[in-house]
């Protein structure tokens, strides 16, 4: 079983914070043999974006570059749109 985890930053809140907590807190199993441990792709993406934002200290320009998206796209993802 391959496992990868990310943790959303509490200092970067967004509109889906409660939804993220519904899926087991800050850890995301990307691959598992047990389907009950898997979460929707949208949740994985939201958590990864939050993790990248935490890693770059909130620098949206750098985060967008790392994620390979335009800054406007990143802003939309951070708003949960």
Could you walk me through the main structural features you see in this protein, from its secondary elements to its overall organization?
This protein is mostly helical. It has a single domain (about 15-80), classed as Homeodomain-like (Arc Repressor Mutant, subunit A), CATH 1.10.10. It has four helices and no strands. The longest helix has 15 residues, at about 40-55. It starts with 16 loop residues before the first helix and ends with a helix. Mean pLDDT is about 75; it is low at about 1-25.
Quaternary: single chain
CATH topology: Arc Repressor Mutant, subunit A
Low-confidence stretches: 1-24
Write down the secondary-structure element order: HHHH
> Could you tell me the mean pLDDT?
75
What number of domains?
1
The total of beta strands comes to 0
Tell me what the CATH architecture is: Orthogonal Bundle
* Helix/strand class: mainly alpha
Span between N and C termini? 32 Å
- Report the sheet-strand fraction: under 5%
Helical fraction equals 40-55%
Task: Tell me the Rg in angstroms.
Answer: 13 Å
Give me the number of helical elements.
4
Q: Specify the CATH homologous superfamily.
A: Homeodomain-like
Largest sheet: none
CATH top level label: Mainly Alpha
Which structural traits does this protein have?
81 residues, mainly alpha, 47% helix
Mind sketching the topology for me?
Elements: H1 17-22, H2 41-55, H3 60-67, H4 71-79
Summary of the model, kept short:
The protein is an all-alpha fold and 81 residues long. Helix content is 47%, strand content 0%.
């Amino acid at each position: 079983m391959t496992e990868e985890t990310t943790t959303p930053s509490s200092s970067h809140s967004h509109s889906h914070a409660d939804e993220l907590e519904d899926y087991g807190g800050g850890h995301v199993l990307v691959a598992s043999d047990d389907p009950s441990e898997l979460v929707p792709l949208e949740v994985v993406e939201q958590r990864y974006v939050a993790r990248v934002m935490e890693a770059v200290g909130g620098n949206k320009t750098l985060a967008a570059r790392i994620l390979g998206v335009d800054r406007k796209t990143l802003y939309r993802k951070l708003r949960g749109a």
